[in-house]
Amino acid sequence: MRDTRESRLLLVLLIAIAFALITVDIRGGEDSPVDGARSAAATVFGPIENGVSSAVDPVGNAIAAVRDSGDRHDRIAQLERDNAALKAELGSDDRNRSRLKQLNKILKTAGAGQYGIKGAEVIAIGAAQGFSWTVTLDVGANDGIQRDMTVLNGDGLVGRVTTVGPNTATVLLASDPDFTVGTRMESTDELGFASGQGDRPLRVEMLNGKAKIKKGDRLVTFGSQADKPFVPGVPVGVVSRVDPSGGDLTRTIYVEPYVGFSKLDVVGVVTQAPPRDPRDQVLPPKPKPTPRPTVTVTVTPSAGAPADGLPEQQQEQ
C-alpha cells in the first residue's frame, strides 16, 4: 500500500474501530456482542496456534535443559567427588593392611635376630648428597637415630644410615655402587664383601678362591666392629650365579638380594645390636623341593596279539 493521505486516514479509522470493539467487549463481559466472532476466530486459528506451540516446545525444552545443565553438572561433579573419596578410603584400607603386614614381618625378623628397632616410613627417594640409590626416612636424631645404623625390613638388609637430621634420616641402599658390606655364607661360613650394582644382582668377592659355592646358597651380614654400620645375621640374598675360580685368590659370585629396593615403604632402623650373633636364625625357611612326578608307562597287548610275545608259529608248536 502506498503511503498516501487516504491510507493514513484508513489506518486511523481501523485503529479507532479496534479500540471501540475492545471497549465494548470489556464492558459486555460474558454477554459481549463480539463473543460469537471471537469463538469463530478461535475455531479457525486454534489448530494453527497448537501447531506453532508444538513446534516451539522443543526449543523451549532445549532452553530449559541448558538453563538446568549447570545444576545437573554440579550434581555429576559431586557424585564423582564422592566416588573418588570412596575409592581413596578403600585404597587407604588396602594400604593400611599392607603396612600392617610389612610391620608384622619386620617385628618377626627383629625378634628372630634379637634386634632393637625403630620403625620408620620411606618418605622420599634420592637425596641431595648425590647418591643415586638412597631413601629418606621420617625419623631422625629426635627419635634416637644415629649415623651408621643398620636398616632392614621384613625381607632383609636395606642399607645403612648416612645422614641424620632432627626428624629425618638418609639411608644408602645396599644396591648403590658405593655400598659395601661384609657377608658370611650360610652353613660354610665363607666370608666375602658384597657391593651394589644398581638394579642388577649384588657382586660378592669371596675371600676364598676355592670356596665351594653353588646357585641357591644364602648369605647374611657378617657384622662390623662395635656393630656399626652393620649388625650380624641380617639376610642379604641368594646366590644366582658363580663365576669360575680360574685359580685366583678370590672368587666372584652374584647374589639376588632379598629386598626389593624399588618398593620400599616401612622399614626398621636397628637402634640396639643383638646380645649375640644370630648366625643363620634370621634367614627364612628354605623352600621345600618340588617333587617331580613319576610317569609309569604300561603296555597292554592287543586282543589279537600272541601270548608271551612269541611269534604265532612258535605258539602253535
UniProtKB/TrEMBL annotation:
<comment type="similarity">
    <text>Belongs to the MreC family.</text>
</comment>
<feature type="region of interest" description="Disordered">
    <location>
        <begin position="272"/>
        <end position="317"/>
    </location>
</feature>
<dbReference type="Pfam" id="PF04085">
    <property type="entry name" value="MreC"/>
</dbReference>
<comment type="function">
    <text>Involved in formation and maintenance of cell shape.</text>
</comment>
<keyword id="KW-0133">Cell shape</keyword>
<feature type="domain" description="Rod shape-determining protein MreC beta-barrel core">
    <location>
        <begin position="130"/>
        <end position="270"/>
    </location>
</feature>
<dbReference type="InterPro" id="IPR055342">
    <property type="entry name" value="MreC_beta-barrel_core"/>
</dbReference>
<dbReference type="InterPro" id="IPR007221">
    <property type="entry name" value="MreC"/>
</dbReference>
<protein>
    <recommendedName>
        <fullName>Cell shape-determining protein MreC</fullName>
    </recommendedName>
</protein>
<dbReference type="InterPro" id="IPR042177">
    <property type="entry name" value="Cell/Rod_1"/>
</dbReference>
<dbReference type="InterPro" id="IPR042175">
    <property type="entry name" value="Cell/Rod_MreC_2"/>
</dbReference>
